[in-house]
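Hi R.,

Here's the chain you asked about this morning:
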Amino acid sequence: MESVLASCSASISELKKNPSALIDQSDGEPIAILNHNKPTAYLIPAETYAALLEKIEDYQLGLLVKDRQNEKISAVEVTLDEL
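And here is the predicted structure, written out as tokens:
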């Protein structure tokens, strides 16, 4: 059986009936949307989604920094006057 990764859950039928009420009842927490008692989606507040996207971007930038640190060996040193 799949794990439900939220403390609040609702069926797709409940979501269709009154999505605003579900969002209000969740107090900003994720809602697991279930289809035949299996999670098929998660409904999260817009602020949480924006924060997740920012964390993903930060992680990707961190990977880019690590990759570029390996390139430091082949770097050519120059002074500002040389530029």
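One quick note: Residues 8-73 form a domain with the YefM-like fold fold (CATH 3.40.1620.10).

Cheers,
M.
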